[in-house]
Design brief:
two-stranded antiparallel ribbon, globular, mainly alpha, about 525 residues
């Protein structure tokens, strides 16, 4: 009887059982579990105690971020094929951990900004926190995904709740319009991506990225066109997610219509999701077709940074929502810089991808910081105009200094050392790959961006226009907003102090697969 049981346990049925490394997937599981807990708790918590849900969400995201620490060795995999242990669906390597830190840390800052926003604008608390945490769980899953099915599922789990978050302000025409534009563009991107993935699967017979890469090296002649079309369609889908030109049209209106914390979330976490997916499919799954996606991404990078910076340059300081629109167009321009190392990876060493990750970490910290200061200013000046920031130093000196530091980092000027380092790293990746023309385009765009970043920075320290401004100290800033500004400023300072460590860690173990 025992022998028979042992034989059965080691037979064909047992070979289908996959082991689960719960520690490796803890950041995703904790975030998803807290989302469900908040949704259930919302049914039983009295209306006056709804703010408690926000603090539970903040605590959950803090725990999820801390759960990355035991994984810092970057050597864990799970959900692997029993017949091919090297083909795994989830890999917690240094690349995945760096992006997960960006995602969960960014979601934590967004949650701190949202604690006050949800209360002041009377957003439905339970739904808001559930959607934010669900989106963060999907975004945290994506960088560790190593098969196309998990990649697409993670992408949609991150995107679908974001549609509802954008349209959360009920009765607001701008919010509804923004949610509709965001929804239509994302659904189109998903449909195109799914068609591309299905073509790739038909040509290779596998969804695991490493197996797809191996089989694309030797595709039968009759399937080569199908595989090529699949690669192209998959890239088009991710280009929508990254807001690369010409798939960027939803960005400015979506940022303006969304609640300010959600706009900051989309500008950082939404962009990180798209770029992470783009890196995984191009550099790991499709290196055999680098002669196709390399030139295409180089052209997209040039178009994206040029149009984004040109549109940001045209923003009028007195126009309502001009501050948010400038940050939106600036994020499009920054997306162009982020595309450069990915394009360069088609021509040179794939370690160039570390430049994108390092730049993304810098961008996440300082852009969320800029949105945090915008949330503080919007409490007294809700029109979100750039001119509203005139004389901010006289009113809130610490907030003005923080915003000036964030803008200088985005511009790549001292004392924003991390911004300068990130831009030099990206520029060097283009030069090393032989993309001299792209390096020139980037240099021109950096100069263009200097103008609108410095114009906004200078405005902070000018004399306020109204001489009859109310005397005395301004209203005390809410503690969650203050904490968000402090966290992002501290992160930017730490990154400025040790930029090489970020680059080395991010590059560490993406490619020995």
């Amino acid at each position: 009887m025992t022998a028979l049981s042992t034989t059965a346990a080691t037979g064909p049925t047992a070979s289908l059982v996959q082991s689960v490394d719960w520690l490796a997937i803890a950041p995703v599981v904790v975030t998803a579990a807290v989302a469900l807990a908040v949704l259930v708790a919302d049914l039983f918590v009295a209306e006056r105690r709804k703010p408690l849900l926000g603090w539970i969400s903040v605590a959950g995201l803090a725990v999820a971020t801390a759960s990355l620490l035991p994984l810092r060795a970057g050597d864990r995999t799970t959900f692997c094929l029993t017949g091919d242990p090297a083909a795994c669906s989830y890999t917690a390597d240094h690349f995945a951990l760096a992006v997960q830190f960006l995602v969960l840390g960014g979601a934590l800052v967004t949650a701190l900004l949202s604690v006050t926003a949800v209360r002041d604008t009377r957003l439905p608390a339970g739904e808001y926190w559930f959607l934010l945490l669900s989106s963060a769980a999907g975004a945290a899953l994506l960088p560790a995904s190593r098969d196309l099915a998990t990649l697409i599922v993670a992408l949609e789990v991150a995107s679908l709740p974001a549609f509802a978050l954008v349209g959360m302000r009920r009765g607001d025409r701008l919010s509804s319009e923004a949610a509709l534009k965001f929804f239509l563009s994302s659904v189109t991107a998903t449909a195109v991506s799914l068609m591309g993935v299905s073509f790739v699967y038909a040509a290779t017979g596998s969804l695991h990225l490493t197996q797809v890469a191996d089989r694309l090296e030797d595709v039968p002649g009759q399937l080569d066109t199908l595989a090529m079309a699949g690669v192209a369609l998959t890239l088009v889908g991710f280009a929508f997610k990254t807001a690369a030109v010409p798939f960027h049209f939803w960005v400015p209106d979506t940022y303006v219509g969304a609640p300010l914390p959600v706009a900051g979330y989309l500008s950082v976490i939404g962009k990180a999701v798209g770029f992470t997916g783009l890196i995984l499919v191009t550099v790991i799954a499709f290196p055999a077709y680098s002669d196709i996606w390399g030139p295409a991404l180089a052209v997209l990078a040039a178009l994206t940074m040029t149009l984004g910076n040109a549109a940001a340059l045209r923003q009028s300081a007195d126009r309502p929502n001009s501050a948010v629109r400038l940050l939106a167009w600036s994020s499009v321009g920054q997306a162009g810089y982020l595309l450069v190392p990915i394009a360069a990876a088609a021509y040179a060493d794939r370690d160039q991808i570390g430049s994108t990750v390092a730049y993304a970490l810098m961008y996440a910290a300082v852009n969320l910081g800029a949105f945090a200061v915008a949330a503080l200013v919007a409490r007294t000046k809700p029109l979100h105009r750039i001119s509203d920031y005139r004389g901010l130093y006289a009113e809130r000196p610490l907030a003005a200094l923080a915003l000036a530091f964030f803008l200088l980092c985005l511009a790549g000027l001292p004392p924003g050392i991390i911004g300068l380092f990130a831009k030099v790293t990206v520029f060097r990746s283009a030069v090393d790959a032989g993309l001299g023309w792209l390096a020139v385009v980037m240099a021109v765009n950096v100069v263009i961006a200097l103008y609108y970043y410095l114009r906004w920075t200078a405005l902070l320290f000018r004399t306020p226009e109204t001489a009859d401004a109310p005397a005395g100290t301004p209203a005390r800033a809410p503690r969650p907003v203050t904490a968000a500004i402090a966290l992002t400023a501290a992160a930017a300072l730490v990154l400025s102090g040790a930029p090489q460590l970020v680059l080395r860690f991010a590059t560490g173990s993406l490619f020995p697969l």
